[in-house]
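To whoever is covering the structure queue this week,

Two jobs came back overnight. Logging them here so there's a record in the thread.

Job A:
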Amino acid sequence: MNAPKKYKVLFVIGQLTGGGAERVLETILNNLDYNIFDVTVYTVQEVAIPASYPAQITYRYIFGAHSFLGKGIVGRLCNKVVNKIKIFIYHHFSAQWFYRLNVKGRYDVEVAFIEGYATRIVSGSTNRMSKKLAWVHIDLLNNHWTQVAFKDLAEEHDCYKVFDKIACVSKTVENAMHRLFPDLTSLTTVYNPINEVEITRKSSEYVVDKKKDATNIVTIGRLDPQKGYDRLLPIMNELKNENVKFDLSILGTGNEYDKLKKYIEANNLGDCVHLLGFVSNPYPFLAAADLFVCSSRAEGYSTVVTEALILGIPVVTTNCSGMMELLGEHGEYGMIVENNSKCLKEALAEVLTSKDKLSELKKKALARSHDFSIARLMSPVEKMLKSHNINDK
């Protein structure tokens, strides 16, 4: 008797580390049944595969060093030329042309796991028999960064029309997509799978020192305008000048690192604000915190807020996509404030100067911590990945 065929699945994403979408993909890949799925992952840019990714996946990339060109000076120059040609083709030819030239293999399911470049690439698939899925991780009405990946809004709309299902990571993200592209009928909400057991295990891998005379705050994310650290630091500066005791650790890298570092140095915040860069396992920092703060201008469905809740860490956040789904419409599981500096400062001042308020938020976070199960959250993902009956093919 022949063994059943596996679903051949393609995932396309920009990179493998650095953000919430990348951690979600890692979680999905680590929880798939490889007796059922045969997975190939393409990144837009060549990266080193993190050790935390499963060995069963096949990894490929589009832009990077091509081994057949060699590693010498001539090889490196040829690589630059090849990549420039690929960029030219991406911007001046159809998605179908780019896909044909750069994506190898035939798949039952093809997934654009992040909006933007990956979505345009997968939309160009020449395989009419494959099921095509797109993930949207951000509220595109409030942060339409994907415009750089498409010629115009009409092309972006046409690309999304190709997909059989568009998985939005929160109801707010889905509603934003409805408003941006009203005729799309393939939208659905699929919440990010988070492995609560693995997060709890990793949170005790090492011990993080805490300041005993201050409230220890942590925030984790890319250092870019979307995350709002440029407005968080002035808030913390004002609170310090008002003699509020805190110690803030910011974990992450990004193009605003130098700008934020200069602000910290110029305002003598080095004793209470720390830019720690990329940390491969941030969970001990999260577990050691008295408070997690999210200062984002826009989100989709915050992975790190979910992780904070799993560890029972109190959350103060601006009101962006997905927060009411995580923390309750009336702040049943955390504190949600209007998305501006004034309200965020007022909330932080209240929490940092009131042990009772912080204790109340702690109880709310602990109450929510039991609601995240990897098995329950993986079920709709696996259902989407199982396309038509491959054994009939």
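Job B:
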Amino acid sequence: MLRKVLWVGIGLVVLAVLAGIWTVWRRPLAALAWYERSSLSRAGLTQKFQDAPTGRLSVWEGGSGQDLLLLHGAGDQAGAWSGVVPDLVARYHVLAPDLPGHGASSPLAGPLTIGMMLSAVESVLNPRPPGSGTIIVGHSLGAWVAMLVAHSHQELTARLILIDGGALRGEREDLSLMPGSRNEARRLVAALRDPGSPPIPDFVLDDVMREARSGAIGRLAASAQDMNRYLLDGRLSEIHVPVDMLWGGSDQLMPAGYAKKMEAQLPAARLRVLPKCGHVPMRECPESFRRALDEVLRQPPPGIP
């Protein structure tokens, strides 16, 4: 009887391992998201849900101190910040939402707009009293939304930290975020990463194509014409909030020249370029990004003239 129970147990373990291998092979991006979100929980964040104009909004929350809001990029989810959350929860009250249509946040279908991203983030910030001073850290699309929040709600924003993104028109219209073939996916991924980083396996490129077509990026692309009214070209001087920028020096989607253009137009801005990092430095070079973010947060923000 004992031997039978042991063999059943071993069989279940083998099946679980095989199922895990199959999931990683067929849906590597989903497997990564699951791992990262589990890491948020282990770091002390709790997933909560709140009502927003866009529907149910998933917000990971934990720690104590000054509010620090983390906004992820397009097609991503709150787990993107899992590498820096353990440091942050020791000093800040961390809020990491899944933006609308991303992660576990509604809506689960239909087009997504920048306005939806903005209204959802406003719903997270609005309960906080004016002058309470939230630090907003935004990556890519999240950086764009962070700048819109600071532009409209200076009273709620203490400072911004922008990572490889902003509210100016992009410069690489030749790069499609929705590759239609493995070669196009490989070209896109190469533009997002340092040339010295390990190559991305073909099964991951295949998942990039699947997610681009059916995921949040494709749903955002459906409202591309609406995005223009949320650009701040020629209006960055209206953002009277100190801004730090952490930028991957190898990012070809949002090159460092884009960041320098923002730095020149913002009233108070400071740029730090991370060598050998691409568009998503928190994943490609996590240790150097973690150190850089910690150093920026410990420095006084750039002064407003």
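Note for Job B: Residues 2-23 have pLDDT under 50 and may be disordered.

Please reply-all if you pick these up so we don't duplicate work.
Q.
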